[in-house]
Structures are given as C-alpha cells and as structure tokens.
Amino acid sequence: MKGTFFDLKRYAVHDGPGIRVTVFFKGCPLHCLWCHNPEGISPEKELMLLPSRCARCGDCLRACRHGVLSQEPDGEVVADHSRCTLCGDCIKACARDAIQIVGWEATIAEIVTEIEKDRSFFDQSGGGVTLTGGEPLLQAEFTEALIDELKLRGVHVALDTSGYAPEETFLRVAGKSDLVLFDLKLMDEGKHKKFTGVSNQLILHNFRVFDSKTQVPVWARFPLIPGVNDDGENLEEMADFLASLKNVKLINILPYHKGGVEKFRRLGRENEFVVFNSPTEENINGVVKFFQDRGFKAKKGG
Ligand code: SF4
Ligand code: SF4
C-alpha cells in the first residue's frame, strides 16, 4: 500500500505541540478559494513551474516532445498543463531545478523511516508527527495504517483535517490519533459552499459526533479571512458551536496570507483562486480576544 504526498516538513512548530514532522497528503475534497497549499488539492501528480529559479534558457521547451511549454515575449516559461504527460523530460533538461512534478508516492515503511530520523527532536520537545494535506482522510486506509504504525512506535500523532469524510471513517481514523486539529471555516452553509465548494453539514456533524463519542483532544483551527468569515454573526455562531463541545482545548486563529496565489499560478490554475485581503494585527488580536472573552483558550497561529 502506498500513499501520495506533496511534502514532508521537519522542525515544524505550528502544527501541534513541540517540534514535529509534518506529512502533507495530496488530495482534498474541499476547494477553498484562499488555499495556501493548492498543490495539495488534486490527488494527481502535477507539473509546477518555479519562475524565480528560471534562467529563461529555453532548454525545457526543446526537451518537451508534447508542445506543453512555451515562452512569453519576456522569456517567462508557461505551460499548457492539459497536454502534459508528466514524462519528466523537461525536468531532466533544466539545470536550475525550475520545474517540478509535485506529488510522490511512499509506503508506510518509507514514510516512517523519514519520520524516525527526527525522533530525538520530537521526543525531547514533546512533539511528534502531524498528518495534514490536502486531506489525510481522502487516503483513509493509508492514514489509518500509518497512525497504527506510529502509535506502535510511541510517536504522538496529530491529525489535521477538514472533517469532510464519511462519519464511520472519520470516527475510526481520527479516533486513533492523540490530537485532532479540526479546521472550522464558516458556519453558514451557503457561504461554506460558495467559498470551499462543499456544504459544512457533514463537517459539523462529524465534529459533534466525534466530540460526544471520544475523549481525543481537539484544537479548532480557524483560518481568518477578512470579508469572508470575520463578521460578528459567524464568530458568534462558531463560539456557540464550540462551547457546546467538551474536548476543544484550544482555538488557533490562522491569519490568511497570500502565499497560495503564486502557487496557483505556477500550477496553471489562475482561475481557481481569489485574492483576499490579509487581516491586520488589530483584526487578528480582536478575534483572539473575542474567543478568550467567551472563555476559550485562543491564540494566533498554530
Ligand atoms: S513533463 Fe514531459 S510533457 Fe510535461 S512539460 Fe515536461 S517534458 Fe513536456
Ligand atoms: S530549462 Fe529550466 S532554467 Fe531553462 S527555461 Fe526551462 S525552466 Fe527555465
């Protein structure tokens, strides 16, 4: 059995307690218009251009037998992604590593080997491993097997999830983790559909059922996007919802940033994102205080 990933980060300090290894699963059932990891949306491997590394030499154009690549008048390389076969010839031709195929496969043993290299860091810091994406539960069988293996090895596992998975799958797999980082974006169903592509009903249902049936601690993760979910109505509804649960230990306020914009462009998906305003420090502190005033432990960042 193999999983598909798009990144593995070491020394992560914002994805749960302590120093962590964060494993990014490729593929997500949501399509958030503010996504800062758009290379995690598609479950398939993808061609990604890295223009900041490009010398505009044109070697990749000559290497591609499928006419995918061309150069703008200023020399910038652009791709017709729909014609790319992911053969990798352009990558071999590029001396600057300015083209990548995003997405790689690995077995449980291979991922665990990578994770074990950092054991001393997470053992000493009270850290562990965070499984994120994308959405790990889109590869539920692999995620479950990886959690089982990590638990056998005494590694603390946090599962970062959108909550969008069949109830039985969610309860079974999330229930094996030590901590759930549960993304909560919008309480209004219509707005949730508009901005993420899916209804929030399954997500809220899973959150409620998981809270009632398990003792697993949860950190609620709230991506703060001005004009989308920072209004009083959404905040009040979110606070009421979270106050009705017993296992929510912390609320992480994650300020929107525009890091995903350039990545959407590099993947040839310019039409699939929207640029929002970043929240000011005043906005962020106001939202942190809003939740703290209602008795929650809340902080900026993960
Ligand atoms: S991966 Fe292959 S088909 Fe795609 S752009 Fe590169 S050379 Fe062309
Ligand atoms: S081969 Fe590499 S450096 Fe040269 S134009 Fe293509 S992407 Fe840029």
What does this structure look like?
This protein has 302 residues and is an alpha/beta fold. The chain folds into two domains: 2-43 and 103-300, Aldolase class I (TIM Barrel, Alpha-Beta Barrel); 46-102, Alpha-Beta Plaits, CATH 3.30.70.20. The chain contains eleven helices and 13 strands. The strands form three sheets. A nine-stranded mixed beta sheet has the order 7-1-2-8-9-10-11-12-13. The chain has a two-stranded antiparallel ribbon with strand order 3-6. A two-stranded antiparallel sheet has the order 4-5. The longest helix is centred in the middle third of the chain and has 13 residues, at 140-152. It is globular, with a radius of gyration of 20 Å. Bound molecules: iron/sulfur cluster (SF4) (2 copies). One iron/sulfur cluster binds next to α1. The site of one iron/sulfur cluster (SF4) has 14 residues, from α2.
* Radius of gyration, CA atoms, in whole angstroms: 20 Å
- The H-and-E topology, N to C, reads as EEEHEEHEEHHEHEHEHHEHEHHE
In CATH, the homologous superfamily of the largest domain goes by the name: Aldolase class I
Count of domains: 2
Highest CATH level, the class of the largest domain: Alpha Beta
Main sheet specs:
9 strands, mixed
CATH topology of the largest domain: TIM Barrel
Number of helical stretches of at least 4 residues: 11
Structural class: alpha/beta
Q: Shape from CA axes?
A: globular
Can you list the ligands bound to this structure?
iron/sulfur cluster
Mean pLDDT: 96
Low-confidence stretches: none
